[in-house]
Amino acid sequence: MIADLKKIWTVFTPSERRKAVWMLVLVILMAMAETLGVISIMPFLSVLGRPAIIHDNPLLHAVYQRFGFHDSRGFILALGLASITLVISSSVFKTVTLHLLNRFVHLERHSISARLLSRYLHQPYEFFLTRNASVLGKNVLSEVDQLLFELIQPLSQLIAQGAVVLAMTLLIFCYDPLTAICIVAVLSLLYGTIYGLVRKRLAHIGKERQTANGQRYLACNEALGGIKDVKITHSAAAYQRQFEGASRLFSRHMAANDTLSQSPLYLVEATGYSMLIVVALTLLLRSNDIAHVLPALGLYGFAAYRMLPAAQIMYRGFAKLRVSSAALQSIHHDLTLAVEQEVTGTSVLAPQREIRLQGVRYAYPSAPEKPVFDGFDLVIPANTSVGIVGRSGAGKSTLMDLLLGLLRPEAGMLSVDGTEIDTGNVAAWQRAIGYVPQHIFLADASVAENIAFGVPRDRIDMQAVEGAARAAQIHEFVVGELPQGYDTAIGDRGIRLSGGQRQRVGIARALYRNAPVLFFDEATSALDAQTEETVNGAILNLSSKKTIIVIAHKKASLRHCQQIFEVSQGHPEFLRTTNATK
Ligand SMILES: Nc1ncnc2c1ncn2[C@@H]1O[C@H](COP(=O)(O)OP(=O)(O)OP(=O)(O)O)[C@@H](O)[C@H]1O
């Protein structure tokens, strides 16, 4: 538990830790205000029960004299009003503190999920080859909620109510130490025993809840993301079952968690109120004077009224800490992932002479013993067009990812004009690149926003968008057939466009930035022969001063390229230099 508490502390940033300390101070003040409310009822009840006490008790007498009261009725009235004022003020203060606490917790949700997403986005590309995207999404959106609302919020309430219980105990202790010790002992024994009985079950629920939550997200994302395959293979029922299984388990665990963390309340309430009656009877037997018993009973009653729910909330905090431990572990782990220092700047590393892969070895993390390349050499002269072919699985996409600087060679290097590409200059190299992948990702935004991908709407250069769209042979379609031209929304992942149209939007995107190096990974495979020919011709015409690298399955798609290499068995084989001119 101590380890978990330390982890929570490290999840906060230094400024959030300072805020957390302020919250703690407010919470303690809240407990003090509450105690004052309880104390204020005592003189009122004492005088109400036995007005003569005004003159017996020196403190009451001094107050009576100081404010110039003439009869006990007026004094009782004033004491009652003072007590009401204190109780109301303490409630107002509590409400404000509660709001501040809630604000802190909700803004923490924002802060932690934003930092977690940022951590993920700054991981190297390889990280995403081994981690499932929907699990990462679940961590950012759902596990952070679990951490905040099922752990940090109950924990803050635990501290708040802990202070209340402590203040109440001290108050009763001043009045009657033995009773205070008895109350604390009984409450601790009750809650301690219950917690001891359920703690293992709570930890188990926490772990299973997290797995079930992941499976829920996975089933949902896969079914909706691959809706076409789901429809055609009629696998909706299977996905529905997969989702429902995980979702039901998740809900059952949440229900068990709520029950286990709430159920002792009734037992403890029953015990608490029974104890109150026992205390009342004992007091009555001891003094036989109801006037003496009344104030003490008022105090105990009010203290019990405040203490029992507070003790229950404390128990709930401990129980939630147990259940949410698994979520805390994974968020804490991911928040401490090392991130690549992003090199800021605008420099562009455009090749003047060559792009070179030299002695490159690369194996995927999941198959470290099976390198895709070992001792791989390739030289791409600047301002030429180079085609790369190879059978399926030969390593073309891996080669592309190495050239793009997404994958880092384990041995050997990628260099541009003799400069080795490393973490310090990979961003400058990538700024020189326009890339058209095999599967183009289109955002649910307008055509213009998709072509100028990543550029804020108001900073899009519409002339450049149109120029790129013309070169990619999509301009006529956009202005002629789309209802709002470049402003037309193309739907989630471009669902309102054909495969070829999507590819051409992707090509226009690569051309928009006017990058000196263009990579095409099977980028024209969805185009008919005539459009492919026109697109390829247009790209090569447009890019008279560009280095173009094209990956294709069919050699025929590479006829515009000046050099063609075939990748086979981890090595490039120079096939030919074509007559293609740029
Ligand atoms: N993330 C990965 N983890 C492990 N192995 C991988 C991964 N991606 C690809 N591979 C393996 O690396 C080899 C090269 O794959 P790559 O995708 O580069 O081939 P390719 O030539 O582009 O194939 P295709 O033309 O079918 O797209 C294959 O044996 C493949 O199984």
UniProtKB/TrEMBL annotation:
GO MF terms held by the record: ATP binding
InterPro entries: AAA+_ATPase, ABC1_TM_dom, ABC1_TM_sf, ABC_transporter-like_ATP-bd, ABC_transporter-like_CS, P-loop_NTPase, Type_1_exporter
Transmembrane segments: 21-45, 74-93, 155-172, 178-198, 264-284, 290-308
Statement: the UniProt record of this protein carries the keyword Iron: no
SMART domains, alphabetized: AAA
Keywords: ATP-binding, Membrane, Nucleotide-binding, Transmembrane, Transmembrane helix
Domain ABC transporter: from-to ranges: 355-582
Cell compartments where the protein resides: Cell membrane
Family annotation (Pfam families): ABC_membrane, ABC_tran
Recorded topology in the membrane: Multi-pass membrane protein
Residue intervals of the ABC transmembrane type-1 domain: 21-290
The protein, known as: ABC transporter ATP-binding protein
Organism field: Rhodanobacter lycopersici
